[in-house]
Amino acid sequence: MKSARRIFNGISRPVENRKGALTVEFAIVAPLIFLLFLGGLEMTALNFARQTAGIASYEAARKLIIPGGTTAQAQTEGLRQMSLVGLGTGASVTVVDSSLTVTATVSVPAANCTWGLMRFSSGYTLRQSCTLTKE
Fold first, then answer.
1. Domain of 73?
2. Backbone angles phi, psi at 15, to 5 degrees
3. Nearest-angstrom CA–CA distance, 82 and 65
4. 7 assigned to some structural domain
5. 3: which DSSP letter?
6. Is the CB of residue 94 less than 8 Å from the CB of residue 108?
7. What pLDDT digit, counting tens, does each position of 7-45 carry?
8. β-strands 11-14, 5-8: how paired?
């Protein structure tokens, strides 16, 4: 009985039995691909939350530098900005009002911002600050 032969670049080689090779290769590579994909989603969610906290800290500081603005209004505005995108739960806004500048800091637990891989982000807190000069 003749064995099957494959011609590759003009060279005739015997065809090997490769049944199941694709399944084994996929089983080895698939977890890595899924980990990279889900890790990318996780980093995207955390970056989104960090950017949102930065905007919220700016808006809180801006609310206080306007003449007549109060600390309570600034904190409320910071929390409102975080709540607009669903990150208000667990978020806190700290405002420091000195004679010339205002500093607003927004903190949110990273575990509140994830899409499922909390193992990588639990225990971390995202903090963004903004310092503005009073008018």
1. 18-133
2. -80, 130
3. 20
4. no
5. P
6. no
7. 666 666 666 677 788 899 999 999 999 989 988 888 888
8. antiparallel
Tell me the one-letter amino acid at 29: V
Cβ atoms of 92 and 107 closer than 8 Å: yes
Specify the number of domains making up the chain. Answer: 1
13 part of a folded domain: no
Q: What are the CA-CA distances from residue 7 to residues 2, 17, 22 (Å)?
A: 15, 16, 22
CA distance 3 to 32: 37
- Inside any domain, residue 4: no
What pLDDT, in 10s, does the model give residues 72-129? 999 999 999 999 998 888 899 999 998 899 999 999 988 888 776 666 667 789 999 9
Question: Is residue 77 included in any domain, yes or no?
Answer: yes
